[in-house]
Amino acid sequence: MLVITDEEIKKHVTMKQCLAAVEEAAKIYRTGNNKQPIRTAMNIDKQNGTMLYMPSYSEEVGYTAVKIVSVFPENRNRGMKSLQSKILLTDAETGAHVALMDASWLTVMRTGAISGVAAKYLAREDTRTCLVIGCGEQARGQIGAALEVRELETVYLYNPTRSKAESLKAYILDELAFNGKVEVVEDPDEKAGDVDMIITATNSVTPVFDGNLIKPGTHISGIGSFKPSMQEVDVNVLKKADKIMCDTFEGCMEEAGDFLIPMEKGEFSEETIEGELADLVLGAVPGREDNDEITFFKSVGFAMADLVTAVEIYRVMKKQ
Amino acid sequence: MLVITDEEIKKHVTMKQCLAAVEEAAKIYRTGNNKQPIRTAMNIDKQNGTMLYMPSYSEEVGYTAVKIVSVFPENRNRGMKSLQSKILLTDAETGAHVALMDASWLTVMRTGAISGVAAKYLAREDTRTCLVIGCGEQARGQIGAALEVRELETVYLYNPTRSKAESLKAYILDELAFNGKVEVVEDPDEKAGDVDMIITATNSVTPVFDGNLIKPGTHISGIGSFKPSMQEVDVNVLKKADKIMCDTFEGCMEEAGDFLIPMEKGEFSEETIEGELADLVLGAVPGREDNDEITFFKSVGFAMADLVTAVEIYRVMKKQ
């Protein structure tokens, strides 16, 4: 059995491979013979923690995975990660357990790739500028994927704690070897009306920029809020958008406060959502149709993306 | 994170340690702050296989475990094990995933230890002879535990395929370094009325010996049948027994055909079961009360025994 660490994944698995895996996952999610039982949650009351167990299976891919996540918020006081995640991969032909892998960087990569695949279909071909709001771990995958699918020239970064934005800037320039300009800004609204693409990757419960500022042709990707109570984009984004897409409708209707909060206020209807990532990949919903379209893509993640990405990582690492 | 193989467990973890772990597990099962969500089953239709996910937690023990089992019956045609099992252990204080271990030998050991703890309380102190019916992998743990808790002089082995009994005989003499006599018999009924202890470890759907033969003072341990359709002991064993105990009442009422089949026929009432392993360990139900008592112990296994045994194995292996 292979044991695969975050460090090894960082070293050997490219964003290009993850983009292909997520595109495949989106297809299989719609067309394949999949299983994804309801996840089990087990509370660890003493630590105010939670254990989550998320199994998945795709006949086409030929593997089952179970993602095991411990969420221990009090770890922050210990200088430890509050979320610690592993994936156990099992060969679906023989039942052999073939790999255990760290799932932190995998999650960063696959979440980036989900946005990246969406941007491939929805962002303007001539997208040159991008604003990233929220500069934590997830932002690394987001910008990594954006740089793969579009030829960016300038990246603006905003984070309430400026040092995190500076640290992401160094990552983009050093690790991603970006040749363009990276600028840390003091206020996202300075740039929100000026860029071709906006990525939000925060845990915010209030919108992180003024949706009224958005210019025609902008593509917005919201990946940070993943609870009904979280909201990164205001209702003006939804109102101004010509095309609203999501990774999975079911997941977003469970978790995406960006939709659920305005829906509860009667300011937005789920019927406005034109489709899922699978629709873009399969061509059931057209991608961007003209240069003036405003497009919004919302992602909360889906198990098939974890499974197919994990299998891709396993295949890459087996060759090492 | 430690990765622990069956071979390492075989080499470094003793049955004595497992017996202590199971005794602890029985106590905690009754008195502790535990969680054990309903297990998730995911069918792999194409292979007629099943994936099982079984999480558990004990605040007292301070760890969570999830047992991941793949059951692929068609593996028999491939010369592969049909059941392949792993346990992921997580520190319940920090959520850190600390060990992944093979769970095949662990299951053999903990199932043996469950019977061993029961026998410690229920078998005659002067138990010298033991008949083992069913000589597969599980029997190794059964006899290993019996030898720890009682000073056996003679072990009789029966298996429909004689070579498996011969192989178990070699294991007992060589690996367990047993000094007494080991004899393979052609018919369990030859010895069922003659021994101090009987262990059944089969998947049989029909009783494997004649319960009418049992002599006063015998202790019978049934561990093989684990489905409502399986039955190793006939109703005469239940009728002749002065004390009937089980590992967990809930588990046995779900799975133990030895009880459920005669209950369905109106030949046995669950009220006759005097208690659980925890009752013996905690002294709530007295163990053997005189030398003529016939005692019957039925086990289908319980998650707390897996968890505490896994933690014990982790502690032993950490010191290596």
Describe, in plain words, how this protein is organized in 3D.
The structure is a homodimer of 320-residue chains. Chain A has eleven helices and 15 strands. Chain A has 320 residues and is α/β, with parallel strands linked by helices. Chain A has two domains: 2-106 and 304-318, ornithine cyclodeaminase, domain 1; 123-302, Rossmann fold (3-Layer(aba) Sandwich). Chain A has an eight-stranded parallel β-sheet with strand order 10-9-8-11-12-15-13-14. In chain A, strands 1, 2, 3, 4, 5, 6 and 7 form a seven-stranded mixed β-sheet that branches. Chain A is globular and about 55 Å long. Chain A starts with a strand and ends with a helix. The A-B interface holds A 1, 3, 33, 35, 37-38, 40-47, 49, 51, 53, 55, 57, 59, 64, 66, 68, 70-72, 75, 78, 80, 82, 84, 86, 88, 90, 92-97, 100 and B 1, 3, 33, 35, 37-38, 40-47, 49, 51, 53, 55, 57, 59, 64, 66, 68, 70-72, 75, 78, 80, 82, 84, 86, 88, 90, 92-97, 100.
